[in-house]
Amino acid sequence: MERITCDICIIGAGSGGLSVAAGAAQMGASVVLIEGHKMGGDCLNYGCVPSKALIAAGKHAHAMTTGAEFGVTPTEPHVNYAAAKDHVASAIATIEPHDSQERFEGFGIRVLRDFAEFTSPTEVQAGDTVVTARRFVIATGSGPFVPPIPGLAEVPYYTNETIFALREQPEHLIIIGGGPIGLEMAQAHRRLGSRVTVIEAQKAMGKDDPEMAAILLDNLRAEGIDIREETAAEKVSGHEGAVTVTTPSGDVTGTHVLVAVGRKTNVEKLGLDKADVKFSPRGVDVDDRLRSSNRRVYAIGDAAGGLQFTHVAGYHAGVVIRSLLFSLPAKVRTDHIPWVSYCDPELAQVGLTEAQARKTHGDKLEVVRFAYDQNDRAVAEGKTTGLIKVMIVKGKPVGASIVGAQAGELIGLWALVIANKLKMSAVANMVAPYPTLGEISKRAAGAYYSPRLFESDTVKRVVRFVQRVLP
């Protein structure tokens, strides 16, 4: 049995764990990184990277059918589904070296490729190695949650961890779950030529602003995706190539089933009881500094039980590094965290939705809106389906919702504004290049100030007075 002593031991080599490891090691701490599965974690291997690569393949196929308004004769694309999956594999392989064991060993990090389990509040064991550390960081992420639907375990089904290895194109893909993962995969597969039915027990995209979500859902339905909301999957039956999902509104039979109803944190096999670390099915119980009930143990990313996004794990890594290396009182906040659903149109959010803002701020809230069809670049590109809404309290944005082309890029400006507690004047003072979709944000700021300038009797009186006294 080998024994290692270090400053920081990180369990999990996904986005958050890798960020902590690289930062800590390069600033002088001795680091051990433990990973029992794939370097890069879920995002690289089963999530962000492969899904966006498949979405890109779907966009190219869709473009071939939608050129009529630009004078381009539409044509039915010939889709090689296996080749599309080759593109997915290529994207992963291209990024993989950045997350590789060799790269992190180059930083002086000891990388152990085994599953870790706490044996005491100060030790973990990974295979034949015991690690004693001054501080531990749990960065084990999450995996797909498979609900206990009767019959599901007896039929072939896919999750995000297995769907990207599928090489045979589904003739009819049934997706259980109408959240971002389910709808992204629904649109990608529909554009690549599969029939797609989405079954959602509640409202599709239920965590987003319902007005914005409706714009997205209308577009998905217009592309031929059958989205059945408030329809629970009660039973699953059948066999490979013919799987039936029973719902209150009738049976749906397809060739393949994808389960995308949510995520579960990967903490149950870590031996946290032996480490005096409190946890629940949501993840490790942490304070606003991401410390657990054992002050030596921190948790970040999905394992910390909050927002489940790769960029949140990276943000958590920065907070933990400040705390571990410099003993700074760094604390997490969530009001400035953006998220994006990468369908077409994209749906992005930062801060409070309109409903949340009304509940929190009441009559103090102002909401400004600007539609994509009033933006010249959107008109030129035929991308006029979309809307931005900004929620404002006393001149400061507290939330922004965008649905439309490049919403994921546009939301970054509002994340910056909210993170730094800037006023709407900061956006209004920005000069946006013309013609760009970025002007949408500036026009939203203009919509906030226009009534104050153009409908104000005081402003008009001041202008008339100045005009009278000017020489």
From TrEMBL:
Keyword Oxidoreductase carried by entry: yes
Xref: PROSITE patterns: PYRIDINE_REDOX_1
Domain FAD/NAD(P)-binding: 7-316
Binding site residues for NAD(+): 177-184, 200, 262
InterPro entries in alphabetical order: FAD/NAD-bd_sf, FAD/NAD-binding_dom, FAD/NAD-linked_Rdtase_dimer_sf, Pyr_nuc-diS_OxRdtase, Pyr_nucl-diS_OxRdtase_dimer, Pyr_OxRdtase_I_AS
Similarity comment text for this entry: Belongs to the class-I pyridine nucleotide-disulfide oxidoreductase family.
Protein name in UniProt: Dihydrolipoamide dehydrogenase
